[in-house]
Amino acid sequence: MTPADGTMKTVNVLVPVGSLGVGVRAEEVRYGIERGAHVIASDAGSTDSGAAYLALGIAKYHREAVKRDLQVLMAAQAAHGIPLLIGSCGQAGGNGGLEWTRDIAIEVSNELKLTPRIAVIYSEQNKDVLKKKSALGKIHALAPLGPISDALIDSCEHIVAMMGPEPYIDALKMGADIVLGGRTTDTAVLAAVPLMHGMPPGLAWHAGKIGECGAQCTVNPAGGAGVLLRVGVDNFEVEPLSPANRCTQDTVSAHMLYENSDPFSLVEPGGILRVIDSRYLQVDPRTVRVTGATWDPKPYTMKLEGASAGPYQTIMIVGIQDPHVLANLDAFHDKMLAALHDRVAKTIGSEAGDYHISLRLYGWNAMTGRPVPSGAAAPREVGVLFVATAATQSMATLIAKACNPYLFHFPLKMDTELPTYGFAFSPADIERGRVYEFRLNHVVEVDDPFELVRTEWIDVGSGVSTRGGT
Fold this sequence. Notes:
The chain is built from 13 helices and 21 strands. β20 and β21 form a beta hairpin. α1 runs parallel beside α3 and α12 packs across α13.
């Protein structure tokens, strides 16, 4: 079915929530279905929560929360015969998180006596394949990282490539009722069905960007979970799924800046979304209509994300209310840090190895680490987070124990009465475990959107599982 035959003036995308597991609202899903949804589509992942989920191959959200959301969505899919698309399953979109989500979906199918055909699309990468790509000069670094190397590839526990909409479209054409995808751009999952039905790519991609976080593009993100996108041949509309919520020109247009430094363009697999000429019209108190977006095709690339485990950390937390310290926090930080390094040198010496200590002053500049403007008022109190990073957990803890006395009573000025600071816990040292780091932030050139993707098919009713693709 295409717009040209006159049977589909708009393709309506029900976005139930910004991320699977956050909390789908059944009444909102019903509202979107009643308003003519042709597909239910949601993102399920992000790099926002750090590298640990990719490095460890685990999901972020609680299993029961994801299961509860899938129960609502899969029941709606089956009852109304419209497809359900989920991208970046399990947070990082690696094989572990994808298969974790797949198993929950099969469990829900059995409990609700549903028999969907499920496409499971993998985007975790084979390191040997990437090394061949690298040797051909097909992988390029994104700032601030440098060139890729075989050693850098090998250092990653898991590597994923961010898919575009094409594998989802292909799965739907092959008869999928539910598509569970590995790492995918947030927008691609939402843009897939409008693109499949021939809607202008600029409008489809722009609608996907606006709706990617569900109700985040509304005036009251906490007052609802999702939105309904109606993508047509010359505009798209955004409407909250909660009748009590509303979209405005400001809330909709502002979402182009979410996780995007350029408000007028967005790089996606196969092209760049341009919205410099977009216009936002309030068509009723709750709905915004958007026109003018264009799509600039480019050679097809997929972003690579790779993560690995690093050194170990031990932390301590102490609260300070001493007025003399609070009036001179920058000087206190520098003096304390120097004293701690001196303490480690004298008590542990070279055995400490390549270690690192940081002091993060919460209530002052812990988030940025940048100097506070001159003349800023002293806070009433600060929390000092001490972080020791070392090659082993035992050494990180040994460093913390060596530094412990200074976090009790370290004075701003020597030969004065010792102040007293308050540890949050006892024992004071808390072993945090390993540091997890993103090691790859690169793009890889591909000959087609399916080159680095493979699909597994599951027919729940028959128990058949088949694999396809590369």
